[in-house]
Design goal:
The structure holds two protein chains of two kinds. By secondary structure, chain A is an alpha/beta fold. Chain A has a single domain, classed as 3-Layer(aba) Sandwich (Rossmann fold). Helix content of chain A is about 35%, strand content about 25%. Chain A has a seven-stranded mixed sheet with strand order 3-2-1-4-5-7-6, sandwiched between helices. The termini of chain A are far apart. Chain B is about 35% helix and about 15% strand. Chain B is globular, with a radius of gyration of 20 Å. Chain B is of the alpha/beta class. In chain B, a hairpin with a 4-residue loop joins β9 and β10. Chain B folds into two domains: about 260 residues, Rossmann fold (3-Layer(aba) Sandwich), CATH 3.40.50.1820; about 100 residues, Rna Polymerase Sigma Factor, Chain: A. The chains are: A alpha/beta, B alpha/beta.
């Protein structure tokens, strides 16, 4: 028997996977159809668990042999004990939570490390849509209209950095990716990332 | 292993199975006396069971299936009393989610049952008469203790999986709590870690219906040659409603009349749903012992896994290495999703490997027994991954 094929084209997922120490215990919050958990199981040999809101997502994950529970990041993280995971990952999900601050605090409590990836609302293309069209931005990676989007708490990279400071999270690593998935100037200042990073990935620990 | 299931026609006396089951039988004596939670000890007792598939050389592929309140050991083969096929053939068989081509499936009649495992309809060796109400009260943990003796006697150290729904799911949880090293994976479906007040209430109505029947004779009906058929039938009718859902009843029957075009203005079964329930009641009486119904419902009522662990359910699973997959159904109001979530929360708190999904179905509690493709896909995925981890 072989594991399901999980070769992914998503650069952000591969970047997250690279931040995870092989053989560690990982909780993926908002794990969707289990693409990242499968990648982590295959390439990093992790003991992975997931939480996913959608019934279809959970059924798909369990059917591919992943340990995933149906649950809500906003309410169910409170049930997990302190330090029960090496990494708690929130991949492209923070903008869909009702209380991002609380979710981040729980992640830092439950895991020794937290990894958060999110779309940057400060990217120049977002800014130009708001500035020139006067409309809420709609892009290939964020295709929803304002009235049907599940993404209720968008933030920019600088906003997220400020939240990390507020909750006392220490930034161990941060990477911004451009639209093509290339890393944005590694030593560039935050304002540069905030303008040219389409998405960002942060590796955090309790400060 | 011998399989003595050939019964050419329906038995005249269904309770003949209680003492002389046509199943495989494991008998235990004083050296394997069963210490019960009530304090009583059963010195001579037996378990009737069925098996499917082959045990592998490493003895690592055994799956124990635990049956629900009125189920039996005929999980995937013809029931000798009813003549009907197994009660979980959708789930268990060659090529099915629990694949008997890969796994050795065992299903035993529960302690207190009436299909060959010792229960109130069995003969008390001390008196030569049916136990009746002198049979000691049994609990879910007692049922599981009895099953552990059976598994020992089959030479199986660790079970690949323990699976079951409803009361079967309670036994699955009890197995994982009582024998954590003997359970590699656990599949508790549509179940709860404790029986709710509402469910105890429904059971009490059923028991009172049985005991109100004059033919119950204070539980001595087998000695006196009567059967509390009316009472047991009413108990079953009431219980059956709790296994369904309003959408399922509406879809199946609505307000349709039974073979008539207008109401008769009598208490005859005008509505199809009445006729259906009456049939369910009558056919149940033909296969089930009334005292057994009292004892097994009571065992469910007493079930509260956290109570054995200082009221903290997570402690029941502390340090467990068992892989769990919990599932509930949206329309199940007898064992609602909140019950399953409580189990999942406790397993998370214990750091256990757990999957949980609430499956969409309008079929109520009975959904776990029916054709539910999502349940089968979930089970296949879970069992397949567990089998890979176990090297089967």
């Amino acid at each position: 028997m072989t594991l399901p094929d999980t070769q992914t084209n998503r650069i952000d997922l591969r970047l997250v996977a690279e931040m995870v120490t092989p053989g560690s215990r990982v909780l993926d919050v908002g794990c969707g159809d289990g693409e990242l958990l499968s990648l982590l199981a295959e390439t990093r040999g992790v003991d992975g668990r997931g939480i996913e809101l959608s019934r279809e997502g959970v059924a798909g994950c369990v059917a591919r042999g992943l340990s995933v529970i149906q649950g809500d990041a906003d309410t169910d993280l409170a049930d997990y004990p302190d330090d029960s995971f090496d990494y708690v990952i929130l991949s492209q999900t923070i903008q869909a939570t009702r209380n991002p601050r609380l979710v981040l605090e729980h992640m830092l409590r439950i895991g020794r490390r937290a990894i958060v990836s999110f779309p940057n609302f400060g990217h120049w293309r977002m800014r130009t849509q708001v500035f020139f069209l006067g409309r809420m931005p709609v892009t290939d990676s964020l295709p929803y209209a304002w009235w049907d989007t599940p993404n209720i708490h968008f933030c920019t990279i600088r906003d997220f950095v400020a939240l990390c400071d507020t909750v006392g999270a220490e930034k161990e690593r941060a990477v911004a990716l451009d639209v093509a998935g290339g890393k944005v100037g590694v030593s560039a200042p935050w304002w540069f990332w905030n303008l040219f990073g389409a998405q960002a990935v942060f590796l955090l620990k309790r400060g | 292993m011998p399989n003595r299931t050939q019964v050419p026609e329906l038995l005249a006396d269904p309770l003949a199975e209680a003492n002389q089951p046509s199943s495989l039988l494991a008998r235990f004596g004083p050296d394997k006396a069963l210490q019960l939670d009530s304090g009583a000890v059963l010195e001579h007792w037996q378990i009737a069971y069925q098996t499917y598939g082959e045990l592998n050389a490493a003895r690592s592929n055994a799956v124990l299936v635990c049956h629900a309140l009125t189920g039996d050991q005929y999980v995937a083969s013809r029931n000798p009393v009813t003549g009907k096929g197994g009660w979980w053939t959708a789930m268990i068989g060659p090529g099915k989610p629990i694949d008997t081509d890969r796994f050795f499936v065992i299903c035993a009649n529960v302690l207190g049952g009436c299909m060959g495992t010792t229960g109130p309809a069995s003969t008390d060796p001390a008196t030569g008469k049916p136990w009746g109400l002198s049979f000691p009260m049994v609990t879910i943990r007692d049922m599981v203790r009895a099953q552990a003796h059976l598994i020992d006697s089959l030479g199986i150290d660790s079970l690949f999986c323990v699976a079951g729904g409803s009361m079967g799911g309670m036994q699955v949880l009890q197995w994982a709590a009582s024998y954590p090293t003997r359970v590699f994976s656990a599949l508790p479906l549509a179940t709860a870690a404790k029986h709710s007040a509402q469910n105890i209430a429904f059971h009490e109505v059923g028991r009172q219906a049985v005991m109100a029947d004059p033919d119950w004779r204070q539980g001595r009906y087998l000695d006196e040659g009567t059967r509390p058929a009316k009472g047991l039938s009413v108990a079953r009718m009431g219980a059956h409603i709790t296994y369904l859902s309003e959408p399922a009843l509406h879809r199946k029957f609505g307000r349709k009349l039974q073979e008539r075009s207008a109401p008769t203005f009598t208490f005859d079964a005008d509505f199809q749903v009445e006729s259906y329930l009456r049939y369910q009641g009558i056919s149940f009486v033909e296969r089930f012992d009334a005292n057994s119904y009292l004892y097994v419902t009571r065992a469910m009522d007493y079930f509260d896994l956290a109570a054995d662990h200082d009221g903290v359910l997570a402690k029941a699973f502390a340090g467990t290495r068992t892989r769990f997959c919990v599932a509930s159904f949206t329309s199940d109001w007898l064992f609602p999703t909140t019950d399953s979530r409580a189990i999942v929360h406790a397993l998370n708190a214990a750091g256990a490997s757990v999957s949980f999904v609430e499956l969409e179905s309008d079929k109520g509690h009975d959904a776990f027994l029916l054709e539910e493709p999502n349940l089968f896909a979930t089970t296949r995925g879970f069992i397949g991954a567990a089998a890979r981890a176990r090297g089967i």
